[in-house]
């Protein structure tokens, strides 16, 4: 029975959060209400990462895959999508995240076929399609690298609120890139649902992706 229907059926009753000492005095219909609400909530996904469902950013991108094909979110409809921004010469965060996502593919088993991992470079100056084609699938054959020119990269980063900045090296070609390190997760209908902070580990990814794939049909 819905909450409003229960309230209408028992006018004048105050619905509060009972303490343990009050539980014995709670009328039977209030206990039924608690069970009804628990049953309604049992099918909702319980995420470990940050639930950003309904956010107004991170809605779309238009980049090019390392296979040379133009890519948008619509291309992956029916699959959960994991999107990470980085660069191929990153010394730690990027290879660590991609390695964790490769482990997630193993943990998901058959469900891995319903997942697409995307690596979008924030260093298009050095990360050519050829380099991305060697680097990204080395972590898992299904992983896809994405790139765009400087304008497309900046536009996509703004849409996803990604911060990146070049840090000079000893020579012009040895610069590094400071950048945001979190990962975005979309459901099979193309809606941004989760933000996974760096360092949460493959278990969090695997758990939340199972929840997402269970709750949202392809």
For the biggest sheet, the summary is: 8 strands, mixed
The helix tally amounts to 6
Round the mean pLDDT to the nearest integer and report it: 85
Question: Would you identify the CATH architecture of the largest domain?
Answer: 3-Layer(aba) Sandwich
Note the overall shape.
globular
Total beta strand runs: 10
User: What is Rg?
Assistant: 22 Å
Helix content: 25-40%
Return residue spans where pLDDT drops below 50 for at least 5 consecutive residues: 1-41
Q: What is the name of the CATH class of the largest domain?
A: Alpha Beta
Describe the protein in words.
With 218 residues, this protein is α+β, with helices and mostly antiparallel strands. Strands 1-10-9-4-5-6-2-3 form an eight-stranded mixed sheet. The protein has a two-stranded antiparallel sheet with strand order 7-8. It has two domains: 3-41, no CATH class; 50-215, Glutaredoxin (3-Layer(aba) Sandwich), CATH 3.40.30.10. The protein starts with a helix and ends with a helix. Mean pLDDT is 85; it is low at 1-41. Helix 3 (93-108) crosses helix 6 (202-215). It contains six helices and ten strands, in the order ααββββαβαβαββββα. The relative contact order is 0.18.
């Amino acid at each position: 029975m819905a909450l409003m229907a229960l309230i209408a059926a028992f006018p004048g009753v105050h619905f509060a959060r009972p303490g343990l000492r009050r539980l014995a005095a709670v009328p039977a219909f209030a206990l039924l209400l608690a069970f009804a609400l628990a049953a309604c909530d049992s099918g909702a996904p319980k995420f470990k990462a940050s639930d950003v469902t309904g956010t107004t950013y991170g809605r779309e991108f238009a980049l090019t895959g390392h296979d040379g094909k133009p890519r948008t979110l619509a291309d992956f409809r029916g699959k959960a999508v994991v999107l990470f921004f980085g660069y191929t010469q990153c010394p730690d965060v990027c290879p660590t995240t991609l390695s964790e996502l490769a482990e997630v593919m193993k943990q998901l088993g058959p469900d891995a076929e319903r997942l697409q991992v995307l690596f979008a470079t924030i260093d298009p100056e050095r990360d050519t399609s050829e380099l991305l084609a060697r680097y990204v699938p080395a972590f898992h054959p299904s992983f896809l690298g994405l790139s765009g020119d400087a304008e497309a990269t900046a536009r996509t980063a703004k849409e996803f609120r990604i911060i990146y900045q070049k840090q000079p090296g000893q020579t012009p070609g040895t610069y590094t890139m400071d950048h945001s390190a979190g990962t975005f997760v979309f459901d099979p209908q193309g809606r941004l649902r989760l933000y996974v902070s760096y360092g949460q580990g493959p278990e969090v990814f695997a758990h939340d992706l199972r929840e997402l794939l269970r709750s949202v049909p392809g």
